[in-house]
Write a structure and sequence with these properties.
The chain folds into two domains: 5-105, OB fold (Dihydrolipoamide Acetyltransferase, E2P) (Beta Barrel); 114-295, Hypothetical protein af1432. The protein is built from twelve helices and seven strands. The chain has helices spanning 53-59, 61-69, 114-126, 131-140, 143-151, 165-183, 191-200, 205-208, 220-224, 227-241, 246-258, 274-298; strands at 13-27, 33-41, 44-51, 74-84, 87-97, 209-212, 215-218. The strands form two sheets. It has a five-stranded mixed β-barrel. A two-stranded antiparallel sheet has the order 6-7.
Length: 320
């Protein structure tokens, strides 16, 4: 069995053991059906294609029925390594379920220690000096919410789309925020609003996404309201229960509502405070840096990537 997905050689026949995620059956421009899927193993993901899926289903009816109807199937996939737009993918010929495998061992998750990240997150909370904001954040991150937040993905695709991705993303932005506070004169930026806003800016994502055995989907509530509205609403509800003064709550809600920066990107309002504008900028920096680091792994032998929607639909130069 091959060990590293990104080291697979084009044209070589390989067998990989992985979790089937993000599976869908589609029709190409010639009217032929095919299965598009992702084979996942921890941090690694490999695009897989089963061409002429109707014929394949006739050859392997039990496997076809299983992967189409059940999530969390771990398989041994045999096929030929192919490439599309510089990205390695597997042209699958045969796929057999591994009945004794535990899907949890294959789930994509943050490469960083969850325990260490939780400890660092709590240290940021402890350094909030304003009593009202500190009390609000402690109430927001109650035991149930903490566990959901610490396990949640930060996105369906693009960046940090794995277990504890939201925690990782929030911590990286908090680190950037802390460094920013060291650069500019004291008093220009409110540190409690900035760091507190960073920690809650994506809070609504714990209700926007559900991670079903490695397949991240947007919930009905996520589609109808979105994480920005849900996060602001929840913060307001907790603030009312804890009798937090509105002048302490409003700046944090503004950060949640404006952190996408522009209405065409989902912001409910535009950033109108220094802290809100900084959260927007730092959020964008971390998302793009994460995507860039992933591209370096996805295109290990290339000087240029394929066009990237996240980077304004241009190719990215990787040759350093």
């Amino acid at each position: 069995m091959e060990k590293g997905f990104l080291k697979l050689e084009k044209g070589k026949r390989v067998t990989v053991e992985a979790l089937v995620t993000q599976l869908s059956e589609r029709v190409d421009r010639n009217g032929n059906s095919y299965i598009d899927l992702t084979l996942t193993r921890g941090e690694e993901g490999l695009s897989g294609k089963i061409w002429n899926s109707s014929l394949w289903a006739g050859r392997f009816p039990a496997t076809y029925k299983l992967i189409m109807e059940k999530k969390g199937v771990v398989v041994s996939a045999d096929g030929i390594v192919d490439e599309f737009n510089g990205i390695v993918q597997l042209r699958i010929g045969r796929m057999d379920p591994l009945e004794d495998a535990d899907y949890r061992d294959y789930l994509p998750r943050s490469p960083y220690s969850r325990e260490s990240m939780v400890k660092e997150f709590d240290e940021f909370l402890l350094h909030i000096k304003d009593d009202d904001i500190a009390r609000l954040l402690r109430a927001v991150f109650s035991e149930d919410i903490r566990e959901c937040f610490f396990d949640a993905p930060a996105a369906k695709t693009y960046h940090h789309n794995y277990i504890s991705g939201l925690l990782e993303h929030s911590l990286f932005i908090a680190r950037l925020g802390k460094k920013t506070l060291e650069v500019y004169p004291e008093g220009l930026i409110n540190p409690d609003i900035l760091i507190g806003g960073i920690l809650v800016h994506d809070l609504g994502k714990i209700w926007e996404y559900e991670n079903d055995m490695g397949s991240i989907e947007i919930t009905d509530e996520g589609k109808l309201k979105g994480h920005i509205i849900m996060g602001s609403e929840y913060l307001g509800q907790i603030a009312e229960m804890e009798a937090i003064p509105s002048e302490k709550v409003l700046p944090l809600q503004h950060i949640i509502l404006s952190h996408h920066g522009a209405r065409e990107f989902g912001a409910a309002v535009l950033p109108m405070t220094m802290e809100a504008y900084l959260v927007h900028l730092l959020d964008n920096v971390d998302a793009k840096m994460k995507r860039y680091s992933d591209l370096v792994k996805e295109f290990p032998e290339s000087r240029w990537t394929a066009r990237q929607r996240m980077f304004n639909d241009v190719e990215i130069f990787l040759d350093q």
